[in-house]
Amino acid sequence: MAIDRNVRQALALDAKLGEGVVWDAGRQVVWFVDIKRQQLWHFDPATGSNAVSEAPGQIGWALPAEGGLLLCGLQEGLYTFDPEKQRFDRLMAVPGEPSGNRLNDACTDPWGRVWFGSMDDAEGDASGRFYVFDRGDIRPAGPSGITITNGPAVNVDGSRIYFTDTAKQTIMVADLSANGVSEARDFVRTADRFPDAFPDGPVVDAEDNVWTGLYLGGHVARYSPDGELVERIEMPARDITKLAFGGADLRTGYVTSATKNMEPADMERHPRAGSLFAFDAPVAGFAQPRVKLG
Asked: Is the pLDDT of residue 121 over 60?
């Protein structure tokens, strides 16, 4: 049964592919992207103010980094973004990535590394894989041969990392340490409980529960550390993409959504689709470490 968590529309938008939501604890704002419109947004929940910056390409994510910058994953590789100067600067390409791929989702770990995935922009070829960015070095790490990657997501003490194979409706888990990552193994097949939906961006809370958006599923799902479905939260949109915990007490869930696969009749049923939503979380998240750039 879905549980009422005071779900609300935090920011009214019609994002084509809202994604990459993250809480910036230093600035006390939410960052998220609209991949297909090549936009980086930020939203201040204390004032309701928001603003958008135009990226130089499809942007999958933006993570708070050292020196007041954001590290961003674009189709062409990694960029830094300076919010004060409103400037994107290309940092480096991802070696060996096919020209038709783009970067899709990412997270940091306790050591300031960034774990991210690539995918075929046309969502047809299994050319996606996962990488780690470690102080200026990029190397493959984690599963490969995936059509649509999502996550990764790291737990609070950095002992576990979760990788999502969206098309196969599977979330995987691997052991993580300062020295690297183990081979990934299946954590949960979301199709067992949500046969018509696809797991999208995951996040882990402070109690090691794994939360995921459900694309084509209209819900956010929470799984225990053992992979049992704990609860599902109904959302006012069909295509739910990514969530993050924010607010002063890290107990507000912020959720992005998409409209790119919706027909006019779908929009009539879900007129708030594409918006940024919020809900009252039953448990807290944890502050995401800043990216170490070098």
From this structure: yes
